[in-house]
Structure formats: structure tokens, C-alpha cells
Amino acid sequence: MTIVLRIAWRNLWRHARRTWLTASAIAFSAMLLVFMITLQLGSYDMMIDTTLRVYTGQMQVQRLGYKDKRQMRATVPDAARLAERLRAATGLDAVAARAQGFALASSAERSYGVPVIGVQPEFERGVSTLPQMVKAGRYLSDSQAEELVLGSALARNLKLALGDELTLLGSGKDGSVAATVLPVVGFFESGNPELDRRLVMMPLATFQEVFAMGEDAHAIVITGPSYESIPLTKAKVNALVADRPQLTVLDWDELVPGVKQLIQTDMVQNWITYIALIVIVTLSIMNTFLMNVLERTREFGIMLALGASPARLAVLVMLESVFLTLLGLAIGVVVGGGIAVYYHFAGFSFPGMEEIYAQFGLPGVIYPKLSFASFTLGPAVIFVFTVLAALNPALRIRKLQPVEAIHAV
């Protein structure tokens, strides 16, 4: 077998120019796939992270069933105290209690039904980028303040200016009438039309008083240092709330399943493009292998006449194709991996992307995701396709007749 391997390797360099051209085609496709897949996976991480940081957070502690049916009575008891306990146990500052109700918001001229959110201003900055997106006025000062901030689109619809008062009329947790009149101190622009035209925020303590919530809230929002830390953080939080069976911990794919579906759809679309690229490269490589076999028909005929079996010759041709493919893949992985590593530290940005994202307090730089899968998945698919392409020329050898092959022109 060692001799067959040596012969297969030596045969590659009988036509060095052809070998390098074919290896270059394989290397280019492998380099492109390695970089594009690492960039694609990195963009998914950025998409998830930026989407969650706007408002949702990486995970939330909620009452069982609250996600599907948002009832005022489905609360987390002693929410602020539990949030403090989670901050101490996990070492994370980005843990904030929230409450949500619904009210009729009325200005001097118009009225709209809106969701009203009670937040802890001192901790909300860690779980949401909304406090950094206040474009006019300021954000909420503290948990005891009696004031509001709302989306800029909602302010325009209500024809409100900074300092104007907004009347809220809703229903409290105990069924009582929840009514208050509070001044507007800021307008935010999140870039999310749904939030900008509907959301009203007030300090949690004020919300609890207006909506008769006591010390309860509806969710505790948690954000870890990175997207990769979510499983470990969730395990810790689950252990900490295990003594409260009425509570559940939901991570991002349960809170916003649409993001995961969008990623899966984009991945399928991208892989269709990748497969098309691989097929084009494979067809050109198959042509090279076929030419190689046809040019050596007389050589194979002599070897058959000397006693070599067709299977042994087919194995020799397959080994040549494997060596050629591995040579191209090795070059492609090294070059593509080097580019991915560089941009992993330097960051990759499309022209104008940073400026657009900066308007909403979000990073506009993609960091390619380095992993064993991202480095090997594309090259592995190329390897399979290329080896399959070499089967056709190799199988042709089984049909050769020694006398006819020797006299072939």
C-alpha cells in the first residue's frame, strides 16, 4: 500500500502546472467557504446579541404561562429582591426587574392604547440599549421618580413635547382603576417601529403604585457578558429559582423565536449559494480527472497487461484525486483561516454599516466566529463532492481492455 501511495503522489507532479491549477481552484473555493462561513456565523451572533440588547435581554425569569398569556396577575413575587439575589449569585450587574401593563394614553389632543413598562432605571441600562437611545430630553432618573419616557413616534402621534403631561388610564392587578398623570422627560428612538410608536416607560416603584402591584413584577431580565455565556448563566439562574416552582427561566430562542427562524432561513439560502459554487468547481475538477485518465489510457493498458487489476488502478486514480483535493483544501483552509482570524480580532464591517448601527447604539462590526465546525464544514463538503467527481473517471478504468488500451491513440 505504501508503494501505491508513493506512486499516486508522484503521478500528481507529472503535470505540475495542471496540478497547481486544479489545486488552486479547490483552494480558492475552500478559502471562500471558510471565511464566508465564519463571517456568517459571526453575523448571526451579532444579530442575536444586538436584537436581545435592545429590549428583550438574553433570558427572563417569568411566571409559568405568562409568555403565552400576559395577565396582570401572573407576577413574580418580590421581584426587586429576587433580582438583587440573582445579581449577587451570578456576579452580573445586568439583572433588572420589569412590570408590564396596558393603558389608554391621552394627551390634550389624542388617545392611544399602549403597553406601559415599569423598569429599574439604575439596572435597565445593563439589559437594554433603550436608555442610550434617548434622542430628546433624558432617561428616567431613579426607581422612585414620577415621570415617563416614550418612543418618539408615539410622542408625535400624541403631539407631545418635553415637559408635557400624559394621562394613563388602565386596570390594576387587583382589578382596580389604574390612573395617573405624569410628565414626559424624554423620547427614545430605537430603530424598531413597534417600540417607537407604542412603548411608554416609567420607574418600577411608580408603576407598582399606580397598577396596585405591591412588590411584584412580571419579569426579571438578565443579560450576560456574551451570547456564548447564555447556557451557563441559564443553568445558574435555574438553580437559584428552583425553590420557586411557579417560576420559569426562558432564554432568547423561547422569548423571540422569530430570530432563530430568520437565522435558519438565511442559513439555508446561503448554503444553496455555497453548494452552487462547489458544484461549479467540482465539474471543472471532474473534467481535469477525466482528461488525466484519457491521456493515460495506454499506460493503464500496459499495467493491465502486466497483471495489475482494474480495481488496483481505480484505487490509484482515487488516491491521486484525494491527494490533489487535500493539497488544495490545506492551502484554502490556511489562507481562509488566516483571513478569518485577522477579522476576528480587527472586526469586519461593510461600508456604511457602522454609521447606521451607531444611530441606534449598536455595534456595526462583525467578528467572524472561529470554531472547528466553521473551519472544516465547507472544506469537508468540497472533499466529498470532489471525491465523488473522481469516481466516474476511476470507474472507466474497469471497462478497459488491455489490448485496446495499449493501441489507443
SSE arrangement:
Layout lengths: L1 H11 L3 H41 L2 E5 L15 H12 L4 E12 L4 E9 L1 H7 L6 E4 L10 E4 H7 L6 E7 L5 E12 L4 H4 L3 E4 H7 L8 E4 L7 H11 L6 E5 H4 L1 H39 L1 H9 L4 H37 L6 H6 L13 H25 L5 H5 L3
Parallel strand pairs: 3-8, 5-7
Antiparallel strand pairs: 1-9, 1-10, 2-3, 2-6, 2-9, 4-7, 5-8, 6-7
Helix pairs in contact: 1-12, 2-10, 2-12, 2-14, 10-14, 12-14
Organism: Candidatus Muproteobacteria bacterium RBG_16_64_11
GO molecular function: transmembrane transporter activity
InterPro entries: ABC3_permease_C, MacB_PCD, Macrolide_Exporter_MacB
Report on this model:
With 409 residues, this protein is of the alpha+beta class. It folds into 2 domains: 199 residues, no CATH class; 165 residues, no CATH class. It contains 15 helices and 10 strands. Strands 2-3-8-5-7-6 form a 6-stranded mixed beta barrel, surrounded by 4 helices. Helix 1 crosses helix 12. The two termini are 31 Å apart.
